[in-house]
């Protein structure tokens, strides 16, 4: 016997009323923090120790503005040297030559393992340790004798010290970025006949930049603040040391510290904006391509839940007709009732 089946219409699903989860303690904490912030600002505005008139006087003082420019020069020159040296060390770490690998590892180990302030002090004592540089054949009379203090200014000693310290960190950042690129990418580029330089420029580096840029931006911001340590060289024309010298003359350190902090915050904010733009540029095709379809699918699914509509897999259009479930016998229907 052939069993006769009936198509039983099923009632549309009820509309779901979503109630957001409430967080009363979280909201209370937020209001408490806002209250404390407002109280701190009001208190600081009327506290005499901050000396806001002196802060306004020295904020755009010629000496402070010039020191801010020197700080930027220290930051970018040191970071440029660190990136170049870091790339060389990263390539040496990945080479098959054991001597080059050992030298790169030793350089990174030394500069990462000693404080940057101690390194800057040593660079400041370079003229004491090596008073002159002799040019000529060893064990014979030198052809040329140069005084170390005359050929290397203090500014460049600070740049060299900061760059070598930062290069040890940049080497690991660059190496991590290169290792993040899948081996299949380089194998495919080699199969296409690309040279090493073309493969690095067109295939490896654009993909590695997504990994390299975020920590490099953080290191640039850290470098900006590390320039305040160049007084160990000693170099006294950077932003922090200059404001400290002015405060020593005026016997009023607090407003000058605020002036230096505002300049550092300004430079840091600009660098963060630039870092965000670079990250957005090099992440094209990685995350932005899949975000929009996901939002569309979510919106379509939400609409179906709210209205109880069904979507046809063939046409992709919604229908408000009651959904049906085939293959349910009348007896089964009675049991469900």
From TrEMBL:
Keywords: Amino-acid transport, Membrane, Transmembrane, Transmembrane helix, Transport. Residues 300-311 have a biased composition (Low complexity). CDD domains: TM_PBP2. Residues 283-337 are annotated as: Disordered. Signal peptide: none annotated. It is found in: Cell membrane; Membrane. InterPro entries: ArtM/GltK/GlnP/TcyL/YhdX-like, MetI-like, MetI-like_sf. The keyword Transmembrane helix applies. Gene3D superfamilies: MetI-like. It is a multi-pass membrane protein. This is Amino acid ABC transporter permease. It comes from Leucobacter rhizosphaerae.
